[in-house]
C-alpha cells in the first residue's frame, strides 16, 4: 500500500477552489472536498491508476479527475505525492508541477 503525501501547494489549490465554490454554495464546497479526498485515498491501493495528462507527453506525472477538479500526482514506488489541484477547464502548465514537486 502506497503512502499518500499531500504537498502544501496542492492543499492550498483545493482550499482556493472550495472557497470560491463556498461563496455561492458552502455545502457543495464541503462535498467537493470530501469527494476529492475520497478519490485520492483510492491511490493508496492503486497508485498507477491515474491517466497521464495530455499536456505532458511521457514523464512521471499522473492525474485523476473528480469533477470539476484535476488532481496531479507523482508515484515514486512507495509514496504518492499529491502535487497540484486545478479546475478541469484550465490548461496545465508544466512549470506548475515543477514548483509543486520540490
Could you explain how this protein is built, in words?
This protein is of the alpha+beta class and 102 residues long. The protein has one domain: YaeB-like fold. Helix content is 37%, strand content 25%. It contains three helices and four strands, in the order E-H-H-E-E-E-H. It has a four-stranded mixed β-sheet, sandwiched between helices. Helix 1 (8-22) packs antiparallel against helix 2. The longest helix has 16 residues, at 26-41. The protein is globular and about 40 Å long. The protein starts with a strand and ends with a helix. The model has no long low-confidence stretch (mean pLDDT 90).
Name a few traits of the molecule:
about 100 residues; alpha+beta; YaeB-like fold; four-stranded mixed beta sheet; 3 helices; about 35% helix; globular
- Number of contiguous helices: 3
**CATH class type:** Alpha Beta
The CATH topology is given as: YaeB-like fold
Characterize the quaternary organization of these chains.
single chain
**Which second-level CATH architecture applies?**
2-Layer Sandwich
With strands numbered from the N-terminus, the spatial order across the biggest sheet is 1-4-3-2
Instruction: Report the sheet-strand fraction.
Output: 25-35%
What is the number of strand segments? Answer: 4
Return the structural class: alpha+beta
Q: Largest sheet, if any?
A: 4 strands, mixed
Radius of gyration: 13 Å
Distance between the termini: 23 Å
Q: Any low-confidence stretches, pLDDT <50, length ≥5?
A: none
Mean pLDDT: 90
- The share of residues in helices is 25-40%
Amino acid at each position: 500500500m502506497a503512502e499518500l503525501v499531500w504537498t502544501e501547494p496542492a492543499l492550498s489549490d483545493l482550499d482556493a477552489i472550495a472557497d470560491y465554490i463556498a461563496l455561492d454554495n458552502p455545502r457543495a464546497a464541503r462535498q467537493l472536498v470530501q469527494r476529492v479526498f475520497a478519490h485520492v485515498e483510492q491511490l493508496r491501493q492503486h497508485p498507477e491508476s491515474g491517466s497521464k495528462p495530455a499536456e505532458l507527453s511521457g514523464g512521471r506525472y499522473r492525474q485523476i479527475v473528480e469533477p470539476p477538479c484535476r488532481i496531479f500526482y507523482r508515484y515514486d514506488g512507495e509514496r504518492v505525492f499529491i502535487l497540484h489541484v486545478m479546475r478541469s477547464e484550465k490548461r496545465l502548465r508544466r512549470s506548475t508541477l515543477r514548483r509543486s514537486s520540490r
